[in-house]
Amino acid sequence: MEAVTGIGGVFFRAHDPERLNRWYATHLGVELAPESYDVSSWWQQPGPTVFAAMSADSEHFGGPAHSWSINFRVADLDAMVGQLRGADIEVEVDSTEYPNGRFANLRDPEGNAIQLWQPAGADLRGPA
Question: Rounded to whole angstroms, how far apart are CA atoms 31 and 21?
Fold first, then answer.
């Protein structure tokens, strides 16, 4: 069976797309979409990805006004949290260390949920 090889893009609506795109680039290092076909898109490091539908009433998204969230893998959660807090961005670090790693939660300027994940266990080791 043929299968997809990864996520090629994440697209969502925003009230101020230019501002939000710059925020993600400045604070999380997500490069801006290229303005021509001669420039490559943002490349990510290989690693685990969770793709999961969630209940329509899930609190994960922060209420009914928000219908999506994104989880970014990070190599050093503490360093990323420090960098964000240094830019006056509120970040909540989950005090529980799970078998699959550590997590922190924040919101972008439009209130969308962002989770940072420092993988551990099987997700750090790679595919079987």
Answer: 8
Cα-Cα end-to-end distance for the chain: 19
Is the entire prediction scored with pTM above 0.90?
no
Going by C-alpha positions, the residue among 1, 118, 18, 10 that lies closest to residue 69 is 10
Quote the CA–CA distance of 89 and 48 in Å, as a whole number: 26
Mean pLDDT of the chain: 91
CATH 3.10.180.10 at 54-128, yes or no: yes
Alpha-carbon span 97 to 71, nearest angstrom: 16
Nearest partner of 113 among 85, 81, 86, 90, judged by Cα: 90
**Residues linked to residue 118 through DSSP beta bridges, in sequence order:** 102
Query: Which structure tokens are listed for 56?
Result: 């329509």
